[in-house]
Design brief:
Layout lengths: L2 H42 L2 H34 L2 H35 L6 H30 L4 E4 L2 E4 L2 H5 L4 H29 L4 H36 L1 H8 L10 E8 L4 E8 L3 H7 L21 H29 L7 H9 L2 H18 L2 E3 L3 E2 L10 H32 L23 H13 L1
Antiparallel strand pairs: 1-2, 3-4, 5-6
Helix pairs in contact: 1-2, 1-4, 1-6, 1-12, 1-13, 2-3, 2-13, 3-4, 4-6, 6-7, 6-11, 6-12, 7-10, 8-10, 8-12, 10-12
């Protein structure tokens, strides 16, 4: 086995999934936001909701496209770099990816076309229905991906046949406590991402004294949604911790920086794990039984330490230890901003508090950082297993993969993804800079869904304008 190719393949997969997850986590929350705006427009008839809808639809369309492009290579990597994993886990993971295509992608592709092209072609209620189906499609996509990943975290409902994981109980695969803790946790994280990006945009416009009505709605609704969602998100985060404590003791020991078995256990708030000497430096620790209470909802439960686990089964301790604390720290900051901002907004004092407005504006990276560090905790903490407890990452690598091939593909992906990210970020900034008071998004009547570039065809736009003037 080429150990360098193994390392490069792990870096490549980590890089591509880190880059890709930014876009789906944003579009899932944004799709729900668009559906809510359209519902409010129908219920109240206020033009401001239509203005906001068209503004965020442009951003949604761009990020949705970037997420689709960046996600294409994810499935290919299973075949190119991880062919043993694909061969062994294909009977389970293949159908799960197929279900995503037949449910999520079908809904997204169909109703995104209606949302972009159908404003003047369908009734108002069906247009809102299309936005709801678009939101449902993004949610189903998250579900199937989390079902796939949760099976890798805690494999259930299978038997081994001819060296492959063959499903023998789909109920266990799709209805289990691990999936139904992790899927809502990811879903609400996406809602928080959308809410904080909307609130941060509103805060920016308030600070610049622009788009007053739109900015107030974005600021208050974004913070209000975040204030409601954050407690629910913390609850499901706790449930995720319980499954880790039950099924992945090496990951939990690394997260907690716990070296020795404890009963009841203490809780390390912050430290520097000295892996070589198996101890924590500069540790700030809460006394027992707080560790048992947090991890196992018990005052007397015993917690495993890394010293009781074979070292070859340890994850890289530093990454899950610090990633988990960064995730929790971002979450606590978001709780404070959402609750304080919502309270001041209710008292009509938010727009006069420039320090808080700046804090809200600068908070837009926090949900992305929390999602990424949460994934680092889950995925790096799972190591050295790709399918926990039954298939090691080193054994899942394509046997004939060379260092040269892995280096070439990694360089190509880094270059392509860097270009995509720079272009996407710049264009989103341009859209936000123009603001929600720009021209409403109206697809020309003669623009066709099977010709998406017709939206940018100047001659069609001029012809459509002349046709509208003639009417």
């Amino acid at each position: 086995m080429d150990l360098t190719a193994l390392l490069l393949s792990r870096i490549q997969f980590a890089f591509t999934i880190t880059f890709h997850i930014i876009f789906p986590s944003f579009t899932i929350g944004l799709a729900m936001w668009l559906s809510l705006l359209e519902a409010l427009r129908l219920a109240t008839g206020r033009p401001v909701y239509r203005t906001l809808f068209d503004f965020w639809l442009k951003i949604f369309g761009l990020t949705f496209g970037l997420g689709t492009v960046s996600g294409i290579v994810m499935a290919f990597q299973f075949g190119t770099n991880w062919s043993i994993h694909a061969k062994m886990a294909g009977p389970i993971q293949g159908p799960l990816l197929m279900y995503e295509t037949f449910t999520a992608f079908m809904l997204e592709a169909t109703f995104l076309g209606v949302v972009i092209f159908g404003r003047n072609r369908v009734s108002p209620w069906f247009y809102w229905f299309s936005t709801a189906m678009l939101a449902l499609g993004t949610t189903l996509s998250a579900f199937w991906i989390m079902a796939n990943n949760s099976w890798m975290q805690v494999p259930v409902g299978y038997v081994m046949e001819n060296g492959a994981f063959v499903p023998n109980d789909w109920t266990k695969i799709l209805v289990n406590s691990v999936l139904w803790s992790r899927f809502p946790h990811m879903l609400f994280a996406s809602y928080l991402t959308g809410a904080f990006c909307v609130a941060a945009t509103g805060a920016w416009y308030v600070l610049r004294n622009e788009y007053h009505a739109e900015a107030r709605i974005m600021l208050r609704m974004g913070l209000g949604l975040a204030a409601v969602v954050m407690p629910v998100q913390l609850f499901f985060g706790h449930l995720c911790g319980e499954y880790v404590n039950t099924y992945q003791q090496s990951k939990m020991a690394a997260i907690e920086g716990r070296w020795n078995d404890e009963k009841p256990a203490s809780e390390v708030l912050i430290a520097w794990p000295d892996v070589k000497n198996r101890r924590n430096l500069f540790a700030i620790t809460l006394p027992a039984p707080l560790g048992s209470l947090i991890d196992a909802d018990s005052l007397t439960a015993g917690e495993a330490g890394l010293n009781s686990i074979p070292e070859q089964d340890w994850p890289p301790v530093l990454i899950p230890f610090f990633a988990f604390r960064i995730m929790v720290g971002c979450g606590l900051i978001m709780v404070g901003l959402a609750w304080l901002g919502s309270y001041l907004g209710f008292r009509h004092r938010l727009q006069r508090n420039r320090l808080l407005l700046w804090s809200i504006f600068l908070s837009f990276p926090l949900p992305f950082i929390a999602i990424l560090t949460g994934w680092f905790t889950a995925e790096v903490g799972r190591q050295p297993w790709v399918v926990y407890g039954v298939l090691r990452t080193a054994d899942a690598l394509t046997p004939f993969l060379t260092t040269r091939a892995a280096t070439t593909s990694l360089a190509i992906f880094c270059t392509a993804y860097a270009f995509i990210f720079v272009f996407g970020t710049f264009y989103i900034y341009r859209l936000i800079r123009v603001g929600p008071a720009g021209r409403l998004f109206e697809a020309p009547r003669i623009a066709l869904p099977n010709r998406p570039m017709s939206l940018a065809d100047t001659s069609l736009l001029q012809e459509s304008s002349r046709a509208g003037a003639g009417e």
